Amino acid sequence: MRKPLIYIVSGPSGSGKSTLVSKLRELPGFLFSVSCTTRPPRAMEASGKWYDFISEAEFDAKARIGEFLEYAQVFGRHWYGTPRRWLDEARQKNLDLVLEIDVQGAAQVKQKFTESVAIFVLPPSRQELERRIRERGQDSEESIARRLERARQEMQRVNEFDFVVVNSDLERAGGAIQAIALAARNSRRAMEDEARKILDSFGG
């Protein structure tokens, strides 16, 4: 079985990660992970689609036995983690894996899988990011201030990523993330083909 190529899509809350990941869903050959979280579901969120909503005790038990590829506590409150089973499933189905995770989780995955492709989604401005967060109507003033400060901190780590996509125009940003994904996949295949030829020259 071919080793899956892992794509990490990360960025501040409100940057539009989910929207751009939906653009990758238009391409064949990808498996999309569903993260676990201890936070309660918001209105219209169903378990298993956006997140698997589990208790802190269940999350802690999974973390203790190594069931997560990455996990982190966000805002000092709720835990988020990516189950390792998604990587196993991608390998079994011969698909590449897309992880939509926060910057802390992205760093953990990149450290474990250095060949993974890390994409940072950047909002066009602080003002636009604040507008998007407020437009959702889900956060108090305190929560909005906390999210903006966290965004500032996360943006200081942008150089840890392989690519940056500025999400100012959906069609342009969507085209950019699709191009990155396809280019990385084609480069990977080219490298594998070259390695195969070299191995063949040695008789296997």
Describe the protein's architecture and organization.
This protein is of the alpha/beta class and 204 residues long. The protein has a domain at 6-33 and 95-201: 3-Layer(aba) Sandwich (Rossmann fold), CATH 3.40.50. It is 46% helix and 21% strand. Strands 2-7-1-8-9 form a 5-stranded parallel beta sheet, sandwiched between helices. Strands 4-3-6-5 form a 4-stranded mixed beta sheet. Helix 1 (17-24) crosses helix 7 (170-201). The longest helix has 32 residues, at 170-201. The model has no long low-confidence stretch (mean pLDDT 91).
What does the secondary structure layout of this molecule look like, with pairings?
Layout: E1 6-10, H1 17-24, E2 30-32, E3 35-37, E4 51-53, H2 56-64, E5 68-74, E6 78-83, H3 85-93, E7 96-100, H4 103-112, E8 117-122, H5 126-136, H6 141-155, E9 163-166, H7 170-201
Helix pairs in contact: 1-7
